[in-house]
Amino acid sequence: MALSSSSSGKMAPIQFMACKSLASHSHRFRNFSTISSNCNASTISRTTYPMASTFRPTVVHRSISVASRSVSVASSFTWDDVLRISLPEIYQDDPSDLTGYFEKVKLCNRGSDMQSEFLPFVVDDQIVGYVHHGFAEHLKQYANVFTFSGDDSVQFRAYLTLHESLKTPEDRTQAVGDVVKCLGEEIIPGTRNELYPVTSSFGAPNFFSLERAAAPYFGIKVYGVHMNGYVEKEGKKFLWVAKRSQTKQTFPGMLDHLVAGGLPQGIPCVENLMKECEEEACIPRSLSNEAIPVGAVSYSDIKGHTYKRDVQFCYDLKLPESFIPENQDGEVEGFMLLPVTNVANVIRRTQLFKPNCSLVIIDFLFRHGYIYPESSGYLELLQSLRSGTCF
């Protein structure tokens, strides 16, 4: 069984753990369920462990779709909720029905009918992004940074570009960064002082760098690394699942991969993955360098003035049974080890996972034989995992 560190430093045999990154706060105790490899209601046991968090989220109830029925779960759901929903016998749904997976793909690829509301963002004769007409209105006041070309009333002829005086990546980064700061949190919320490269395609020359929070407002391609950490025991596979901190700027409290993160400026994928492994799950490099690149998923999501064009590089890492993740950067509330089939149930039945994580896990299910060609829609679902432009 997996082990969890207690506040005394001793080890207790349980299947999940709370992060210890906020240990300076007062500890509180909560009861959660554990799950065994047999995975049925009779094998669930209780255990108590310290949760080093004093955050108290507002509880708002919502309805989560579960096959042909729905179940009411608080937005601040617990591991107990995850366990209950994941159990095969709880709902009489068909694991070969791919409808729940298709819904997750659709959730990441909204707004295709709104593409005509966006202007191409062109740099050095290359389209690097797309900007909504509404957001473009904010940029018009910065004529020394942005130039609008073509007839603004004829959308396919109009486009946004940078002022001709901005020649170097450094000048462009500074000028656009100043605009982002001036627009402030009211227009571009969640600034992080983290720069993403602006390119026409992955590996192409970097035209300039842009604040991460501003990326969807300029519609640039964003790349990230997502890693499924799994364990094999007694012929069965288990996935480590993380629960995001309630204080995260995006998707607080939702389920996540063991390790995931955006790809910032100037860091190769493998180096960024190993860095995230250390920060998010305390995985030493002696283990993380064994992670295997297994492809990518992509999606295009339009919502309001934002246009997310994301590509996630996928990795698998087989971990020893004895390994227990620990969060170091305060971005994870806790971890749980679940049978892959149970994780699949959560994906199919609910929206508890951060949306793009669902796509990466569905890809894992394909590659590890949990989704069969005989299932109706198999090839369509497989292709839909790369609905965005990967190159």
TrEMBL record:
One of its GO terms (molecular function) is 8-oxo-dGDP phosphatase activity. It comes from the Eukaryota. Pfam families: DUF4743 (PF15916). PROSITE patterns: NUDIX. Residues 222-363 form the Nudix hydrolase domain. InterPro entries: DUF4743, NUDIX_hydrolase-like_dom_sf, NUDIX_hydrolase_dom. Signal peptide: none annotated. Belongs to the Nudix hydrolase family. Probably mediates the hydrolysis of some nucleoside diphosphate derivatives. This is Nudix hydrolase 20, chloroplastic-like. The lineage of its organism: Eukaryota, Viridiplantae, Streptophyta, Embryophyta, Tracheophyta. The gene is LOC111014470.
